[in-house]
Amino acid sequence: MATEHSRSSARIMIAPAVFVLLVWMLVPLCMTLYFSFADYRPMRATFDAWIGFDNYVSFLTSSSFLSSLGTTLLMVGGILIITITGGIGLALLLDQPMFGQGIVRILVIAPFFVMPTVSALVWKNMFFNVDNGLFSYLFKFFGAQPYDFLSQSPLLSIVVIVAWQWLPFATLILLTAVQSLSSEQLEAAEMDGAPPIARFWYMILPHLSRAITVVILIQTIFLLSIFAEIFVTTNGAFGTRTLTYLVYQRVLESQNIGLGSAGGIVAVILANIVAIFLMRIVGKNLDN
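Below the sequence we write its predicted C-alpha coordinates.
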Protein backbone atom coordinates (compact mmCIF):
# COMPACT_ATOMS: atom_id res chain seq x y z
CA MET A 1 0.00 0.00 0.00
CA ALA A 2 1.29 3.45 -0.91
CA THR A 3 2.37 5.63 2.01
CA GLU A 4 1.93 9.38 2.31
CA HIS A 5 5.62 9.83 1.56
CA SER A 6 5.37 7.80 -1.66
CA ARG A 7 2.29 9.77 -2.73
CA SER A 8 4.11 13.05 -2.17
CA SER A 9 7.10 11.79 -4.15
CA ALA A 10 4.82 10.73 -6.99
CA ARG A 11 3.18 14.17 -7.08
CA ILE A 12 6.57 15.87 -7.17
CA MET A 13 7.77 13.64 -10.02
CA ILE A 14 4.71 14.19 -12.22
CA ALA A 15 4.45 17.91 -11.42
CA PRO A 16 6.83 19.02 -14.26
CA ALA A 17 4.88 17.04 -16.86
CA VAL A 18 1.56 18.41 -15.61
CA PHE A 19 2.96 21.95 -15.64
CA VAL A 20 4.22 21.59 -19.23
CA LEU A 21 0.86 20.19 -20.38
CA LEU A 22 -1.06 23.00 -18.69
CA VAL A 23 1.18 25.65 -20.23
CA TRP A 24 0.99 23.91 -23.61
CA MET A 25 -2.82 23.99 -23.54
CA LEU A 26 -3.70 27.08 -21.51
CA VAL A 27 -1.33 29.65 -23.04
CA PRO A 28 -2.67 29.27 -26.64
CA LEU A 29 -6.24 29.13 -25.33
CA CYS A 30 -5.78 32.30 -23.25
CA MET A 31 -4.15 34.10 -26.17
CA THR A 32 -6.98 33.08 -28.48
CA LEU A 33 -9.52 34.28 -25.93
CA TYR A 34 -7.68 37.60 -25.59
CA PHE A 35 -7.45 38.21 -29.34
CA SER A 36 -11.14 37.31 -29.78
CA PHE A 37 -12.05 40.57 -28.02
CA ALA A 38 -9.56 42.63 -30.04
CA ASP A 39 -9.49 44.09 -33.53
CA TYR A 40 -6.19 42.63 -34.70
CA ARG A 41 -5.41 42.76 -38.43
CA PRO A 42 -1.61 42.74 -38.83
CA MET A 43 -1.60 43.23 -42.62
CA ARG A 44 -3.44 46.54 -42.13
CA ALA A 45 -1.43 47.50 -39.04
CA THR A 46 -4.65 47.56 -37.01
CA PHE A 47 -4.78 46.68 -33.33
CA ASP A 48 -7.49 47.66 -30.87
CA ALA A 49 -7.12 45.80 -27.58
CA TRP A 50 -10.83 45.82 -26.73
CA ILE A 51 -13.85 45.93 -29.03
CA GLY A 52 -16.18 43.84 -26.89
CA PHE A 53 -18.14 41.06 -28.52
CA ASP A 54 -18.04 42.55 -32.03
CA ASN A 55 -15.97 39.67 -33.40
CA TYR A 56 -18.38 37.09 -31.99
CA VAL A 57 -21.40 38.93 -33.39
CA SER A 58 -19.77 39.23 -36.81
CA PHE A 59 -18.79 35.57 -36.88
CA LEU A 60 -22.12 34.19 -35.64
CA THR A 61 -24.31 36.41 -37.83
CA SER A 62 -22.42 35.77 -41.07
CA SER A 63 -24.01 33.49 -43.64
CA SER A 64 -20.73 31.56 -43.84
CA PHE A 65 -21.12 30.40 -40.23
CA LEU A 66 -24.46 28.67 -40.75
CA SER A 67 -23.40 27.08 -44.04
CA SER A 68 -20.09 25.85 -42.60
CA LEU A 69 -21.86 24.49 -39.51
CA GLY A 70 -24.33 22.60 -41.71
CA THR A 71 -21.49 21.26 -43.86
CA THR A 72 -19.65 20.09 -40.74
CA LEU A 73 -22.70 18.22 -39.42
CA LEU A 74 -23.39 16.62 -42.82
CA MET A 75 -19.79 15.54 -43.17
CA VAL A 76 -19.55 14.08 -39.66
CA GLY A 77 -22.90 12.30 -40.03
CA GLY A 78 -21.95 10.77 -43.38
CA ILE A 79 -18.58 9.57 -42.10
CA LEU A 80 -20.15 8.03 -39.00
CA ILE A 81 -22.73 6.14 -41.08
CA ILE A 82 -20.04 4.71 -43.36
CA THR A 83 -17.56 3.81 -40.62
CA ILE A 84 -20.12 2.21 -38.31
CA THR A 85 -21.91 0.15 -40.95
CA GLY A 86 -18.64 -0.77 -42.66
CA GLY A 87 -16.96 -1.43 -39.32
CA ILE A 88 -19.70 -3.85 -38.27
CA GLY A 89 -19.44 -5.70 -41.57
CA LEU A 90 -15.65 -5.93 -41.45
CA ALA A 91 -15.69 -6.94 -37.78
CA LEU A 92 -18.05 -9.82 -38.51
CA LEU A 93 -15.94 -10.83 -41.52
CA LEU A 94 -12.62 -10.70 -39.65
CA ASP A 95 -14.10 -12.75 -36.81
CA GLN A 96 -14.51 -15.68 -39.18
CA PRO A 97 -11.62 -18.17 -39.47
CA MET A 98 -9.71 -17.65 -42.70
CA PHE A 99 -6.30 -18.26 -44.21
CA GLY A 100 -3.83 -15.48 -43.35
CA GLN A 101 -6.19 -13.91 -40.83
CA GLY A 102 -3.40 -11.98 -39.08
CA ILE A 103 -2.13 -10.47 -42.33
CA VAL A 104 -5.66 -9.50 -43.38
CA ARG A 105 -6.26 -7.73 -40.07
CA ILE A 106 -3.00 -5.79 -40.43
CA LEU A 107 -3.97 -4.70 -43.95
CA VAL A 108 -7.38 -3.56 -42.72
CA ILE A 109 -5.81 -1.51 -39.92
CA ALA A 110 -3.15 0.05 -42.17
CA PRO A 111 -5.16 3.10 -43.43
CA PHE A 112 -5.52 4.40 -39.86
CA PHE A 113 -1.76 5.00 -39.68
CA VAL A 114 -1.64 7.05 -42.89
CA MET A 115 -1.37 10.80 -42.36
CA PRO A 116 -4.54 12.71 -43.37
CA THR A 117 -2.59 14.83 -45.85
CA VAL A 118 -1.04 11.77 -47.50
CA SER A 119 -4.34 9.91 -47.73
CA ALA A 120 -6.02 12.97 -49.26
CA LEU A 121 -3.23 13.29 -51.84
CA VAL A 122 -3.46 9.60 -52.70
CA TRP A 123 -7.21 9.73 -53.23
CA LYS A 124 -7.00 13.02 -55.14
CA ASN A 125 -4.30 11.93 -57.58
CA MET A 126 -4.70 8.15 -57.84
CA PHE A 127 -8.48 7.75 -57.66
CA PHE A 128 -10.34 11.04 -58.22
CA ASN A 129 -8.11 12.60 -60.87
CA VAL A 130 -10.34 13.21 -63.88
CA ASP A 131 -7.52 12.59 -66.38
CA ASN A 132 -5.34 9.88 -64.88
CA GLY A 133 -7.32 8.58 -61.92
CA LEU A 134 -8.28 4.95 -61.49
CA PHE A 135 -11.99 5.72 -61.50
CA SER A 136 -11.60 7.67 -64.75
CA TYR A 137 -9.99 4.66 -66.41
CA LEU A 138 -12.85 2.48 -65.18
CA PHE A 139 -15.42 4.89 -66.60
CA LYS A 140 -13.59 4.93 -69.95
CA PHE A 141 -13.31 1.14 -69.93
CA PHE A 142 -17.10 0.84 -69.70
CA GLY A 143 -17.59 3.52 -72.36
CA ALA A 144 -18.71 6.32 -70.04
CA GLN A 145 -17.45 9.85 -69.58
CA PRO A 146 -15.00 10.34 -66.68
CA TYR A 147 -16.63 11.78 -63.58
CA ASP A 148 -14.94 14.67 -61.78
CA PHE A 149 -15.65 13.68 -58.20
CA LEU A 150 -13.96 16.64 -56.49
CA SER A 151 -15.92 19.26 -58.44
CA GLN A 152 -19.22 17.45 -59.06
CA SER A 153 -19.52 15.54 -55.76
CA PRO A 154 -16.98 17.28 -53.49
CA LEU A 155 -18.70 16.66 -50.16
CA LEU A 156 -19.20 12.96 -50.88
CA SER A 157 -15.57 12.68 -52.02
CA ILE A 158 -14.23 14.11 -48.76
CA VAL A 159 -16.58 11.91 -46.74
CA VAL A 160 -15.22 8.84 -48.55
CA ILE A 161 -11.60 9.91 -47.99
CA VAL A 162 -12.04 10.52 -44.25
CA ALA A 163 -14.23 7.44 -43.77
CA TRP A 164 -11.56 5.29 -45.44
CA GLN A 165 -9.06 6.50 -42.87
CA TRP A 166 -11.34 6.09 -39.83
CA LEU A 167 -12.89 2.77 -40.83
CA PRO A 168 -10.03 0.70 -39.30
CA PHE A 169 -10.54 2.39 -35.92
CA ALA A 170 -14.24 1.51 -35.87
CA THR A 171 -13.43 -2.01 -37.07
CA LEU A 172 -10.97 -2.61 -34.24
CA ILE A 173 -13.39 -1.47 -31.53
CA LEU A 174 -16.28 -3.43 -32.98
CA LEU A 175 -14.15 -6.54 -33.62
CA THR A 176 -13.20 -6.58 -29.94
CA ALA A 177 -16.89 -6.41 -29.03
CA VAL A 178 -17.79 -9.17 -31.49
CA GLN A 179 -15.11 -11.46 -30.07
CA SER A 180 -16.47 -10.93 -26.56
CA LEU A 181 -19.87 -12.29 -27.59
CA SER A 182 -20.57 -15.77 -26.27
CA SER A 183 -20.36 -18.28 -29.10
CA GLU A 184 -22.54 -20.69 -27.11
CA GLN A 185 -25.51 -18.31 -27.35
CA LEU A 186 -25.10 -17.97 -31.10
CA GLU A 187 -24.81 -21.74 -31.51
CA ALA A 188 -27.90 -22.27 -29.39
CA ALA A 189 -29.86 -19.75 -31.47
CA GLU A 190 -28.66 -21.44 -34.67
CA MET A 191 -29.72 -24.84 -33.38
CA ASP A 192 -33.15 -23.42 -32.53
CA GLY A 193 -33.53 -22.43 -36.17
CA ALA A 194 -32.95 -18.69 -35.93
CA PRO A 195 -31.89 -17.31 -39.36
CA PRO A 196 -28.64 -15.27 -39.68
CA ILE A 197 -30.49 -11.95 -39.97
CA ALA A 198 -32.43 -12.63 -36.77
CA ARG A 199 -29.28 -13.62 -34.91
CA PHE A 200 -27.59 -10.42 -36.06
CA TRP A 201 -30.54 -8.15 -35.26
CA TYR A 202 -31.51 -9.56 -31.87
CA MET A 203 -28.19 -10.82 -30.49
CA ILE A 204 -25.12 -9.34 -32.19
CA LEU A 205 -26.32 -5.77 -32.73
CA PRO A 206 -27.56 -5.21 -29.13
CA HIS A 207 -24.25 -6.61 -27.90
CA LEU A 208 -22.40 -4.07 -30.08
CA SER A 209 -24.43 -1.08 -28.85
CA ARG A 210 -21.86 -0.03 -26.25
CA ALA A 211 -18.98 -0.30 -28.69
CA ILE A 212 -20.96 1.69 -31.27
CA THR A 213 -21.59 4.53 -28.81
CA VAL A 214 -17.88 4.63 -27.94
CA VAL A 215 -16.97 4.81 -31.64
CA ILE A 216 -19.48 7.62 -32.19
CA LEU A 217 -18.11 9.58 -29.22
CA ILE A 218 -14.44 9.33 -30.11
CA GLN A 219 -14.86 9.82 -33.84
CA THR A 220 -17.21 12.79 -33.50
CA ILE A 221 -14.75 14.66 -31.28
CA PHE A 222 -11.99 14.26 -33.86
CA LEU A 223 -14.16 14.64 -36.97
CA LEU A 224 -15.44 18.05 -35.88
CA SER A 225 -11.97 19.41 -36.66
CA ILE A 226 -11.55 18.01 -40.20
CA PHE A 227 -9.10 20.24 -42.05
CA ALA A 228 -6.23 18.53 -43.92
CA GLU A 229 -8.43 16.56 -46.32
CA ILE A 230 -10.36 19.70 -47.31
CA PHE A 231 -7.21 21.79 -47.67
CA VAL A 232 -5.56 19.24 -49.98
CA THR A 233 -8.56 18.39 -52.16
CA THR A 234 -11.01 21.29 -52.57
CA ASN A 235 -9.44 24.12 -50.56
CA GLY A 236 -12.84 24.83 -49.04
CA ALA A 237 -14.58 25.36 -52.39
CA PHE A 238 -17.73 23.70 -53.82
CA GLY A 239 -19.56 23.79 -50.48
CA THR A 240 -16.95 21.85 -48.49
CA ARG A 241 -16.01 24.61 -46.06
CA THR A 242 -16.41 23.32 -42.52
CA LEU A 243 -16.35 25.37 -39.33
CA THR A 244 -12.67 24.62 -38.79
CA TYR A 245 -11.81 25.64 -42.33
CA LEU A 246 -13.83 28.85 -41.94
CA VAL A 247 -11.71 29.78 -38.91
CA TYR A 248 -8.58 29.10 -40.97
CA GLN A 249 -9.80 31.40 -43.74
CA ARG A 250 -10.58 34.18 -41.30
CA VAL A 251 -7.17 33.97 -39.64
CA LEU A 252 -4.75 33.28 -42.49
CA GLU A 253 -6.48 34.20 -45.71
CA SER A 254 -8.35 37.28 -44.44
CA GLN A 255 -5.63 38.11 -41.90
CA ASN A 256 -8.29 38.96 -39.30
CA ILE A 257 -6.81 37.46 -36.17
CA GLY A 258 -9.56 38.79 -33.91
CA LEU A 259 -12.43 37.40 -36.00
CA GLY A 260 -10.65 34.09 -36.46
CA SER A 261 -9.95 33.82 -32.73
CA ALA A 262 -13.62 34.42 -31.98
CA GLY A 263 -14.47 31.68 -34.45
CA GLY A 264 -12.00 29.36 -32.75
CA ILE A 265 -13.58 29.95 -29.35
CA VAL A 266 -17.04 29.32 -30.82
CA ALA A 267 -15.79 26.08 -32.39
CA VAL A 268 -14.29 24.96 -29.06
CA ILE A 269 -17.53 25.70 -27.21
CA LEU A 270 -19.64 23.82 -29.77
CA ALA A 271 -17.25 20.86 -29.73
CA ASN A 272 -17.40 20.69 -25.94
CA ILE A 273 -21.20 20.83 -25.98
CA VAL A 274 -21.33 17.93 -28.42
CA ALA A 275 -18.71 16.00 -26.41
CA ILE A 276 -20.61 16.46 -23.13
CA PHE A 277 -23.88 15.41 -24.78
CA LEU A 278 -22.29 12.29 -26.26
CA MET A 279 -20.49 11.41 -23.03
CA ARG A 280 -23.79 11.44 -21.17
CA ILE A 281 -25.31 9.13 -23.77
CA VAL A 282 -22.30 6.80 -23.51
CA GLY A 283 -22.46 6.88 -19.71
CA LYS A 284 -26.15 5.92 -19.70
CA ASN A 285 -25.49 3.15 -22.21
CA LEU A 286 -22.64 1.73 -20.14
CA ASP A 287 -24.74 1.80 -16.97
CA ASN A 288 -27.53 -0.24 -18.58
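Residues 4-36 form the longest helix (33 residues).
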